[in-house]
Amino acid sequence: MEFTPHSTPKDTGWIEVIAGCMFSGKTEELIRRLRRATIAKQNVKIFKPAIDLRFSENSIVSHNEQSLPSVLIKDIKEVFEHSKDAHVIGIDEAQFFSSDIIEVCNKLANEGKRVIVAGLDQDYKGIPFEPMPQLLAVAEYITKTLAICVECGNPADKTQRKTTSSERVIVGAADIYEARCRRCHYIPEEK
Ligand code: ZN
Known about the structure:
CATH topology of the domain at 14-145: Rossmann fold
Largest sheet: 6 strands, parallel
Distance between the termini: 47 Å
Oligomer: single chain
CATH architecture of the domain at 14-145: 3-Layer(aba) Sandwich
Low-confidence stretches: none
Strand content: 25-35%
Mean pLDDT: 89
Bound molecules: zinc ion
Number of strands: 12
Structural class: alpha/beta
């Protein structure tokens, strides 16, 4: 794996987590790794939560319009029935799944599978977005992706919401969110 100084594990599975704010290239990086696994003739299965219907129902799609076919699931445990023969499991938008995802990823990795999970590590207020903190704790490999702050050009790891809604989850893209650095990020006044 070119993204780590370690050698690839032998005779075991493992967990990789790609974490960051919106527009930081998480899905792009997930797609890149899964594509390479496919080229290496590995059986790859990709999942995303039923909540995220942006762009396409049956694909994971990055903001730069890369895409790969994926299975839409409501409960993370549905992964088991679809991944019997898979060598590599990709999971996108992990922050929308329940904390069962920890047990599911551990079980898959224990069965010898490579599990690659991408997700938002903080909500729009900058609060750690469960279950990502727990996933980061059990992962062997962690990649933090940074975006560019739209205000000042610094590396950005916060998602700025441009609406005043106080719901934790509003699915959207550049119309309601943008990347900001620590200095430029603020919590919108709730109405
Ligand atoms: Zn900034």
